[in-house]
Amino acid sequence: MxxxxxxxxxxxxxxAGVAGAWVVVVQLGGARRPPDPHLxxxxxxxxxxxxxxxxxxxxxxxGERLGAQAEAGSRELAxxxxxxxxxxxxxxxxxxxxxxxxxxxxxxxxxxxRAELARIxxxxxxxxxxxxEQHGRFETRxxxxxxxxxxLAETTQSLxxxxxxxxxxxxxxxxxxxxxxxxxxxxxxxxxxxxxxxTAGTVPDxxxxxxxxxxxxxxxxxxxxxxxxxxxxxxxxxxxxxxxAFVRDVRARVRELSGRVYIDPxxxxxxxxxxxxxxxxxxxxxxxxxxxxxxxxxxKVVLCSPSTLFSVLAVIRQAVEQTQLQRRSDExxxxxxxFERQWTKFAEALDKVGRSFESVRRSxxxxxxxxxxxLERQLDRVAELRSRRGGDGPVATAELALxxxxxxxxxxxxxxxxxx
Length: 420
Known about the structure:
The protein contains nine helices and seven strands; from the N terminus they run αααβββααβααβαββα. It is α/β, with parallel strands linked by helices.
């Protein structure tokens, strides 16, 4: 392709040169004489023939070169086409293999996704079933709570109606006190007594036994009428008025209790307990009258809620147990002292018996030793005498006598004259 372009350039240059030369000749000839039309036509024909010949040559050469280039290009195109087709085949095979692998992976992934979706479906089904069960239990629980709330409302109303009576409030306070005493481990008749008259003629609700023969009195009657009115009030002014009236009632109750002669220097402690049977009431009293504690202590009255009463009773029980333990310790020491005295006497008697046993043992040893050997020795002599008097017959027992040492000896024979 480059050669064709070069030839075309050469032909174009020749044509341009011939044309330029012709123009120069025409101009030079025209300067000397007028132009000859025949000569101009001949030169033009010559120039045209030269140009045509040059063009034909260029076309021929270009055609040959173009044919060679076209043939080479066809062979190259065929080779490239074959290589391309081979590459396309390889790529198609690789793509098919990759597609197969991808399809396999996709199918496996789809299978995993389906299994996961099935598991999620089962989980959702179970959750729905559990939610339905929980919802049913929740509804049942709500019904139970509603029923309990209704019963609680009825109980609250009944309690409010019951507390409207002073006698009912007193019984309620005694019941609360009994529960606290039972929780503290106190036993009626042993740790305390109820409704027992004092020497002054007053009757406290509870009397606790203390060490040293002393007692501690407690009263459970407490005014809460204005407190209930305070709770039922609908306006702030009414609540404040009833709260102030309730505090006045409490102070009046403290003064009343201090004047009941519950304190006897010879028999009781120097204080008396006033039981407030509700923690909320106890907190309300201290919240609205911060000087009530000091006022009550000056009147020798100690205010107790159920929790503080439990603490006081625990201290009382501990003191009683410590006193009983000390008393029992003294009794144990007395028993140990008596035991020590009796042990001394027992040891002396045992030593005496031991000495007696020692004397008996020595006597026994003497009997089984020396005396027995002496007797055996005499029996040996008797046996010897028997063997010696074998012809005369056995020795008569009457002929034997004991010597001074306890040995057996034969009696002497009678004289001959006597036997005459």
